[in-house]
Every structure is written in structure tokens, then in C-alpha cells.
Amino acid sequence: MMLSTRAFSATRQATRGVVGAGVGAVRSKHTVPDLDYDYNELEPVISAKIMKLHHDKHHATYVSNLNAAEEKLLEAQAKNNVAAQVALQPALTFNAGGHVNHTIFWKNLIGEKNGGGQLHDGALKTAIEQQYGTLGALSTAVNAKTAGILGSGWGWLTFNKALGRLDVISTANQDMPSSVGHVPLLGIDAWEHAYYLDYNNVKADYFKNIWRVVNWKDVAKCYDDAVAQHKA
User: Fold this and answer.
1) The model's pTM
2) Which of 123, 155, 195, 216 has the fewest CB atoms within 10 Å distance of its CB?
């Protein structure tokens, strides 16, 4: 029973920071967050058609499945059914990751006309230049890591809590960076549903172009928060 309880708490803890679910509100429903922009905001890098399908259908499916799995977990806990609790772990992990990762992803993006792709002076820019030399070198490193994913997954710029610095990693499927001790700063969705209608099988072009719509203001805030927590 302890295994399932920890996993359930971890799901709620992971979603708290990005969707406002308090630890005490374990029976509240997860919801798909509204976008901060219109579906066509990211064109021509990402089409309105993909954004609508990705946000309204794919993300919504993760949320629906997560809520259903949590309801089943609560029922299993009430009945002290340990086998059922253990059996629910894959669904909880996968769908919680899908929800959290996509919530981060939407915040990481903004249209070019509203500042997309523009990294201004500050702590994050300094850290990037110290570790990678230039923003272009960083994007090359992230794209290489993301392109190396076998199947589906995510490429990430993270804050590595163990090392106290920026890092570039990839995660499989819907695994979250927090599962390996990293704070997610910028995520690139490498699942086909994120790009195929626009780029077909040429995902390298998607990886290259997405940097034009990165919301560096959001990424910089995440970095500042991660550093502050690390120093506390």
C-alpha cells in the first residue's frame, strides 16, 4: 500500500506547481489549462490545426485518463486492495507525465511577434553562455539529444539539482525530468502528434524551427526559481 500512496502523492505534488492542485485536494479533478494565446499564435512554426488537436484532444486524453486512474486508486485504497493499487501505477505515471509535460510545453511557447525566440540578458543567458558558449550551441545540443530518442519522448533543458547547473536530457514516453532529479525548464515534445501534420516525417525541421517560438521569459523564470530553491 505504501508504494501506491507514494506514487499518488507524487502525482499530485508534480501537478501542483503547474496546475494548482493542492496536496490536500486529492479528490479534485485535473483539468486541461487554457492556452495563453490563440491556436494560430505559433504559425508558421506550428499550425493552428496541430495546436487545436494537440491541446484539445491529446492533452485532454491524458487528463481524462489520469482522473480515471486516480479514482480507481482511491477505491482500491479504501478497500485495501494492494494488487489493484500496484496495477494502477503505470497508468498513473504515464498520464500524470502527459499532463505535466504538456502543461509545461504550452507555457514554454509564444509567437514570434510577441517575443518568441528572444533571450534577453539575465541569469539564464549568462548560464547558457558559460556552459554552452551560445544559444545556437545550446539548441544544437538539445536537438541532438531529442533526435536520439527511440520512439516517443521529450527533449529537455533542465536544472540538474545534483550538479547545480543547466543540463540537457531526454525522457522516454511521458516520463518527467523530476523522476531523475531534474527541474524542467524547457521541453520539446518529440511525439509525432506534435509535428506530423506540419512536417510529416522531417522532424529535424520541427526541432530546428521550434526555437523561433520559445518563450524565454517563461524559461528564465523557471530557471530563477530552480536556482533559488537550490540555494535555499
Assistant:
1) 0.88
2) 123
